[in-house]
Structure formats: C-alpha cells, structure tokens
Amino acid sequence: MIQKLLNKINGLHYSQEYLCLSKETLENPLHVYLVTHGQPRKDITESHLFVGYSPLIFAFPSSVINNKQESLNIIFSGKPYQPNEIPAKKDAIALLSLKKIDQAEVNEETILFYEGVKGRHHFISKFHQFIIQVHNRLYNKKAGNVFLKDNLYKQVQIAYSIARKICLVTVGDDNLYNLFPTDLHGKINDQQYIISLRHNGRVCQQVGASKRIVISDMQTSNYKTVYALGKNHTKELKKLAQFDFDAARSRHFSLPLPKSHLSYKELQLEGSFIHGIHKILLFKIIHEENFSGESETLSHVHNCYATWRYNQGLSSNFLYR
Fold it and tell me: In terms of residue numbers, what domain contains 55?
C-alpha cells in the first residue's frame, strides 16, 4: 500500500527505472563540462568514462585532466557553452563533485580515476526527489541488490543522464562460453579499454581466468534480448550450442559474436584494481571492427532524466521492456 502510494506521487513519468534508446537518435542530449571557479573549462561529454556506481567512479585520460588535480566539479547542461562562459543557474541541470582515488600508468598513458563525493540535480522537484529517496530506503535494501545509500543514489541518477551504451561481452574457450551485458565500460584511448565488473561476481572470475574477451556494440532493436542476458552474470560457462551466437567469430581470438552486433573489440587484460564493489579491468585493444551503415546503438538512461526530457517537451525515442 505504502509502496504504491510512493510510486504514485514520485513525479516520474515512466514506470521503468531505466529507459532504452538508440544513442545516435537522441535529440538535444546533455553536455558534460569540467568546471573551475564556476566556469566551464572543457567539454568532457565524450572523454569521460562511467565505470562504477558503488561508489560512483569516473575515469579520464591524462590528456583531458591534469593528473595533479585531486578534486573535480562537473556540470551537466542542455546548453553548449563557450570556454569560460558563466552558466546561468537554470542551465546547470546537475552537478557532481569528485575526488581522485587512483591512477594507472598504461603504455605511456596515465588513466585517472575519481570517486563521486556529492551530486545534486533538478531533473525533478526536491519534493519528488525526497519521495524517491524514501522509497529507496524502504524497498531497495534487498538480498543480492546493491543498495545505493543517500546521495549516492542521486549521483547515479546524474551519471545515467548521459546515454550509456549496453554492450555484450563474450568470454570463454574450449567450447565453453558466457555472454553477458555491461554498461560500465569505455575506450580510454586508441590502445586501452576499461570495463568494470563486481569483484565478487562470477563473470569477473571468468574474465580474470581467460584474460581475453570480445565486447560488442548492439543493435537497439535487440534490447529485450540483451537485458534478458543479465542473468548470465551469475552463470557458469556453458557450451556454445546453449547460446544464440552469430555464425561469425572474432578475428584473432576466434570468440563467437552475438547476433545483431554492430561492432566488436578484442581485448586483452593487462591490469586491474578493486574499489568498492567493483574490479576495474584495464585492457589492451587487440583488434576492433566496425560495420558500415547507419547505427542505432543500444543505450539507456535513468528515469529521472527521461522525465525531465518529457517535462521539457523534448522528443525522445525510449523503448519499454
């Protein structure tokens, strides 16, 4: 009864917490800016990686962030800014404060990792944010569920206001495989790739043992199948015939590729570290292949941002599972 009431008055337009979409067709997406003394200094929309949610973890190449910078402030805005332009308060829809937690030296590139300290947004009203937090405290502390406490929940809502790609990872050999989705990943430069997995999870053990994987961008039209494969995070390796793989295989590792893939990368594990519930895996890109034609890459965003878009009258292409 109470849960139904909270859901009714939470101010969210959609019933699902995450909404799928084609990243390329999202009109008027948000921009992410590094801010110094209240002024946007650099557009980092395409140069930051979201690689952790408990705690919130962002990764940056040292070509984007000075490796001596111990803290960062970043804003999310629907308005493109010129360097040093002072943003109007209404234009900064969300803000994240971050602190440096680690750095990794990989092939002459320094990769910097920052943890979320505080986030605030006005995708929805403060009252509705309060209702959502009450619901979170009462109903999201479940066995097997990662509980996002207090402000961390807001930080994650903000991180998912940028469309995050949901890719499929193939791992295995000797005719035993697994295929599972991830949205905590990204290409840090032309040679390195980062993926984050729960350090005590089965797929993390499988990837650590194999050290070779393929990650594939997926067609948006395949969103229900991709989401359904989330159960494989807890599954053992299985025989090839138990998966609906494409006939094609990756060039060097000869790993099977999922159907409806748009592109793939072969990745070799080079290093890792644990922070919070996550194991941050650092890979070398061995080979990548992109297929021609117009792409509609499977991604998703959080309901808070999706609701803000609805309230702003912005056209969206959300899909329902």
Answer: 2-163+300-312
